[in-house]
Fold each of these.
Amino acid sequence: MPEPAPLTDAVTGAVGDERGPTAAALAVVRRGAGPPTVVTAGWTGREGPAPRPVEPGTRFDLASVSKIVTTLAVMRLRAAGALDLDAPVRSLLPVFAGGAKDAVTVRALLLHRAGLWEWWPLYAPAEDGDGVLGDPAAAVARAAALPLRYSPDSGRHYSDLGFQLLGAIVTRVCGMDLRTAVADLVTGPLGLRATAYGPLTDPDVAVTSRGDAWERRMIATGEPYPVPVRSVPAGRDHWLRGEAGDGNAHHAFAGAAGHAGIFAPAAETARLGEVMFGGHPGWPPEVVAEFAAPGPDAEQALGWRRTEVTTPDGGTVTVLGHPGFTGTELSVAPALGLSWALLTNRLHPTSTPVDVSAARARATRLVLTTCSTGPESGTTGGFCPDVGV
């Protein structure tokens, strides 16, 4: 049997362990090179709904990669002059006010420096009130009412709540619900027809965890966040396919939130990163540059994470991107004209997150080795356009 092509080898290596994941897809977009290259491996699931081979069109629960969709929407509003990043959040969301909150800006939310709790199960009853089910406005109000955990601008504290508030800001500025706003601002202009919030009924979707198993553990143990909640009456106990694994996105926000809830195939996920190449009419170069620049924390730009990655020739390149808890990741190297997405379902079938960092690192290394071409990259890899499964 011939050796598999390099990118296919990276994807097949990400599946097969009985602990999971069972599904993987890698897509690479090269500036000016036509449609994305896509390779897939595995099955949509081992437990639950009838398994199907993973295909290029298989959709995955992107989890926190959804934050990039929210960031792209904010970038559009910034470009249109409709949103001032230095405006106080309270001027847009009056429910977020009082004390140190009054000084928190939109920019601080994007930089994860607003002092918010990292996570809070808004759907579960707690000492401060009842849980929220299926009411995005009430969920935002509850998130906004929570006390700050840290002093604003005292450091980077990655927060789901910050992007829940950013999603609400997008809806406030646009005057429409988040599903419609994202379709108008992001997925429509980019031609991403399969990228959408759940729930989905399409059978070609990777299965994730069994209900809310992992979040129930977090709540029961108070780890890693000591929230004063110890029960989840709204919990799910079935295999999730097409429902956001994130409890807040599904229960509190009815599937569409600023921090989670988007489903997409690998090719369309990779195409989200094309915006950061510059040149798209909806995202002008000056806005792209502003959102790509490092903030007070070198690893964090506005909405995008930043990493310095070693290239095959021994140099370094800045990679922008974002991971998702379900085992997904979007990466963009603007200087090389490369955007790639590795999507897995690492919570299946054990409902416990499997470490896929080695698969991510291998995919990045092979993408930079085989797909970087042209004067910006200094290499002439030739596999990428012709990879097949």
Amino acid sequence: MGLAALVRLATPDHAYGIGEQVVRDPEKRLAEMEQRRAEGDLRVDAAITEVGRWLGRGAASPVNLFNPRVIVLGDYCARLSDRIIPVAQTELDRLGLAAAIGRCAFAASDLGFGAASRETVDVVIERVLSDPTTIAIS
């Protein structure tokens, strides 16, 4: 579940594409969610809980199949991990196979927004620099 879905759940009256001034910057939208949560907005907390629930459900099959030791959360999930991880872990524990879930835990990345895309670019650049023949020149 992406940040747009979280925003729609938490603030259906102010979701992406609704209203006169739409904030599309994910950092600003996340800051808004964090502010509303700090102010005690129950819809935000309920939306974050729902994200955690779906994250745990979604992780169950890959954990059962591949038996990883950790699932690293990035972007907005990392910033909201204090609430998301316990819910996701509970759901994973409920749906996963005992042998697999006993070794697997969720962890929050501290690399910030866009870490996955930056890492992907780094991998591509490293590959091209290490072997320039990987690029086809037309």
Amino acid sequence: MGDLRSLPVPDGLEGERLDAALARLFGFSRTLAAELISAGDVQVDGASAVKSDRVHAGAWLDVVIPPPPTMPVPVAEPVPGMRVLYEDDDIIVVDKPIGVAAHPTLGWTGPTVLGGLLGAGHRVATSGAAERQGIVHRLDANTTGVMVVAKSEVAYSRLKRAFKERTVEKHYHALVQGHPDPLRGTVDAPIDRHPSGDGRFAVVAGGKPSITHYDTIEAFRAASLLDVKLETGRTHQIRVHMSALRHPCVGDLAYGADPTLAARLGVTRQWLHAVSLGFEHPTGGERVTFTSDYPDQLGASLDKVRAES
């Protein structure tokens, strides 16, 4: 049973749909708001309602707020295919394979980088929430490549600061549909959760500032291979920005990619790979850079699109 919250609809939400009004009032996703309404946990002026009802300023809302979900803890078991590229007393750098999340999250039951490191006997920093200990940045589950994890507490705090202050150099390669015009450019467009509440992100006015620099490495008949440098690190940033340019990553069906092209090239995920990561070593102070080769599927699809051209 959750907590009952009662309050009037503010003037600024006059005429909004009930699910959208709840999302704005309580910071819910639209999906959760709709679930609460259909479960009968929301009343407007003492009566049940449906999510598409329009609310009026001053109407009285009674909402049963569900208790916060308990976050899953990392399952400590080795992750097949995850290679350690470098390790010392402060950091461990891994080459993350496909289908592995950085750390446990609600709704993710698959393997994680954190669980894989713990399962292989590596020590990681205990700073941060229990389910994210040592994690200073993330890659999407289906984005492969270089990722650094903090082992010491001093490395955790210094690397977190380096990512926040944008002194880390993150380079990705992305195979995108078509040919971006211009061939080299910058996308400066704010990102937030997609209004649909389906887990995607989108360019949204008032979202978090997000900056992506890209440069064409090679142009093919159907696609272009880009070098992408991230200035900020928003969730799905490259995927969202490329989709906004109408040049989604090949295979990225969630963001508008052509399934026919993906199938022809044998791509079953977004064609996006973190090729290099450069930063100041948190205790040594020297600049270090780590690189990762393309996984087999991405390399093979690149050969195919090159041969077609």
